[in-house]
Amino acid sequence: MLADITKVENIYMVCGYTDMRKSIDGLCAVVEEVVKRDPRENSLFLFCGLRSDRIKALLWEGDGFVLIYKRLAVKGRYRWPRNSSEARNLTWQEFDWLMSGLDIEQPKAIRAQFA
User: Fold this and answer.
1) Structural domains counted in the chain
2) Domain hosting residue 95, numbered range
């Protein structure tokens, strides 16, 4: 299925500014050089530009790459860490918050407790 992200093992937020003119090949190079990961692994890689109002996501589907692009239609910005030398592994909850326009650091979120 085209762009079925529910099966990915990891979600990586590539921190810092990414040139949003980059296409699939350019983003693959960022994944290899900055994140030190194989872009063909079963992961979703997220990139954000200087304006912070749009996100690109790179996904390998076994037979090719899918590039997903989301631009906010309302006035606002994604809250994106700007330390360009790191990538952050997100949980599904943090990914949901991010895609909803919220900060991934939710201080009042209830954490699951294990006995």
Assistant:
1) 1
2) 7-99
Q: Of 54, 60, 17, 64, which is closest to residue 37 (Cα–Cα)?
A: 60
Structure confidence by residue, pLDDT tens digits, 43-86: 999 999 888 889 999 999 989 999 999 988 888 788 787 776 67
What's the CA gap between 100 and 86, in Å, rounded? 23
| Alpha carbon distance 65, 45 (integer Å) | 11
Dist CA 43 CA 71 (whole Å): 21
Cα dihedral 60, 18, 35, 26 sign? positive
| pLDDT for the residue numbered 79 | 79
For residue 27, report the phi and psi dihedrals to the nearest 5 degrees: -70, -35
Amino acid at 19: D
